[in-house]
Amino acid sequence: MEETYSEVVNVAREYYNSDDADNFYAIIWGGEDIHIGLYESQEEPIVDASHRTVRHLAEKLNLTPEHTVLDIGSGYCGAARYLAKTYGCSVVALNLSEKENQRAREINEKRGLTDKIQVVDGSFENIPAEHNTFDMVWSQDAILHSGEKEKVMQEVSRVLKPNGEFIFTDPMQADDCPAGVLQPVLNRIHLKSLGSFAFYRQQAEKLGWKEIEIENLTPQLVNHYTRVRQELAKRREELTGKVSDEYIDRMAQGLGHWIDAGESDYLSWGVLHFRKPG
Prior knowledge:
Elements: H1 7-17, H2 19-29, H3 46-58, E1 68-72, H4 78-87, E2 90-95, H5 98-110, E3 117-121, E4 134-140, H6 149-159, E5 160-169, E6 172-173, H7 183-189, H8 197-207, E7 210-216, H9 219-234, H10 236-239, H11 245-263, E8 267-268, E9 270-275
Parallel strand pairs: 1-2, 1-4, 2-3, 4-5
Antiparallel strand pairs: 5-9, 6-8, 7-9
Helix pairs in contact: 3-4, 9-11
């Protein structure tokens, strides 16, 4: 029986299952990751900056081969492969796009990592796992796609072991963001609101989590979407026949909204790291 998703999550699922989105992210992003990168220069390849984000988060954890990690919104499993290969840990990669998951499984098999990574079709609003299962939960720029972010946080807490850690990034609205100014961004992703540093801190406090670190890296959000828009314009001809003109035009417009909002200080982005109590 096919799982039923909330309306907002299903919109994201249908989007990431589309040939247009799959080909766009595979070509422009490199097919490993679909998240904001950490850039050291304005000309740096997206794939390099994206991989630096994975390394940056991983270095904040004390992972060992005995640990089991859950990656929620795992995309093409780039982070899962890095964690499994570098630290020897086991990873469950939970993602709602069956198309992305199939591509991820094929890459995992080619890299000899199928024994370390289990790719699961599903939503982080209803994580298919028992209580107290995972040592770490990881997520990169995925929770924004939920209209029930409180439920996602509750689910993460449920499946984390006592003293387990949750580390994630998410495109957010600034804590002092004026009402209404993000509507072009929200319309693009079919949401009523985004999270914020204050929102996630509040949710963590409700769950009794300890805050390990909040790292504000907001300028990288503008850097990233600027680089993606540049690459989209530069490589448009390469996308011909693989990605529709309508999708490319919408993407270019949507990237502009993200950049404008970021440059106006209406958006935030960074690393949030919490620990569930023992």
